[in-house]
Amino acid sequence: MSRPSCPRCARPLDHCLCALIPSLDSRARVLILQHPSETRHALNTARLAALGLRNAELLVGERFDDLEERLARPGYRSCLLFPGEQAQPLAGFAEQGVEPLLLVVPDGTWRKARKLLYLNPSLEALPRVALPEGLTSRYRLRKAPMEGALSTLEAVVAALEIVEAPRRYDALLAPFEALIDGQIAAMGEETFRRNHGE
Fold it and tell me: Which CATH number does the domain 22-136+145-196 belong to among 3.90.25, 3.30.1330, 1.10.150, 3.40.1280?
């Protein structure tokens, strides 16, 4: 029998994170496209980002039929937050115009995020932007697959702190930190130190 869960944060009721999730405004709009396999992930940081930002939306799927209309939203300049050779620094792209950004963020493993791009050609057509090098994930329970790899939530926070500076968005990380602390507590401090070298 499964434990009852919170309808908002989808966590078990005895581990509900809603009290830690802020409600922050941003000039930029954030559109998170989540691969369906990520909805079952214990952290599901994309959901935390969408819940904590008033100007964010989370869509789950592989193909998004109305994506072109969403990307053509009046008053916004759309861009895809995804690294690659064609990606330009986010800060430079943001400075090139006065309109707020519509920041499109794929959520999934690298392979599944690339699949989202392949299945939705309008994403490939967007200007691609990247975060600065040298950022480090706070997710202490897993080794990043590559240098600078962040969770979706961490990437959204880093991006907003660039384009909305000097405004801060690290309050979005509070439920993420609580999830990590809860996982460490469940495994025990000694097991954590032995397996993760801290």
Answer: 3.40.1280
